[in-house]
Write a structure and sequence with these properties.
single chain; 202 residues; alpha/beta; TIM Barrel; four-stranded parallel beta sheet; three-stranded parallel beta sheet; 35% helix
């Protein structure tokens, strides 16, 4: 994959440090595993495992020298105090890349009746993450088309983010890279490639 200019990343869930070490030996460069929300709010939205299991998996991946992407999903009913708590946890863990996802309510799921977060609240959330994580990559990912409707989709690029995930998401559609590149330029920024391990100063 390296010969093709690709760096292998994986989202295998909670795995042991031994497996992470084996995956790295096999060529894995990056590990993605979101903490989802703050420890103090986690039990409200997840009962399948303990929060510390997620934290330990992220901690182990960092210790094994993998490029770790770990963030959360916002709009679950948490407050700004929970968002601060999550940001500080990610900071203290040393996570270099923080994806910011916004809930898209899906019929048939437990949070189907949650309202879509307003673009104003989403921008305040992005600004908060940038303020608390000034030297980290902060990227907007899932939920972007729902939160930032047409006419406001360039706003995240003015809120201090480092980048976006382009294309479709796991369960919801997105947009193509051409539209995102146009929005980046309209925000007065210059799009460019990102290499794993870069900080936020470039």
């Amino acid at each position: 994959m390296a010969e093709a200019g690709l760096e292998p990343d994986a989202s295998p869930g909670i795995v042991s440090r031994t497996l992470l070490r084996d995956l790295k030996k096999a060529g894995l460069r990056g590990y993605h595993h979101n903490l989802e929300t703050a420890a103090s709010y986690f039990d409200t939205v997840c009962t399948t495992h303990a929060y510390e299991e997620d934290v330990q998996a992220v901690r182990d991946a960092i210790k094994e020298g993998l490029y770790v992407c770990s963030g959360g999903i916002f709009g679950l009913g948490e407050g700004f105090e929970h968002r601060v708590e999550l940001a500080l946890t990610l900071r203290d863990l040393g996570v270099p890349s923080v994806p910011v996802n916004f809930l898209t309510p899906v019929p048939g799921t437990a949070l189907e009746d949650r309202p879509v977060m307003s673009s104003g609240e989403a921008l305040r959330t992005l600004a908060l993450m940038r303020f608390l994580l000034p030297d980290r990559q902060v990227r907007v990912c899932g939920g972007r088309p729902s939160v930032f409707a047409k006419g406001s989709r360039s706003l995240p690029f003015k809120a201090g983010i480092t980048g976006v995930m382009t294309g479709d998401y796991l369960t919801t559609p997105g947009e193509g890279p051409r539209q995102d590149v146009d929005r980046i330029r309209r925000a007065g920024l210059t799009p460019g490639p990102h290499q794993q391990g870069e900080d936020n100063r470039g």
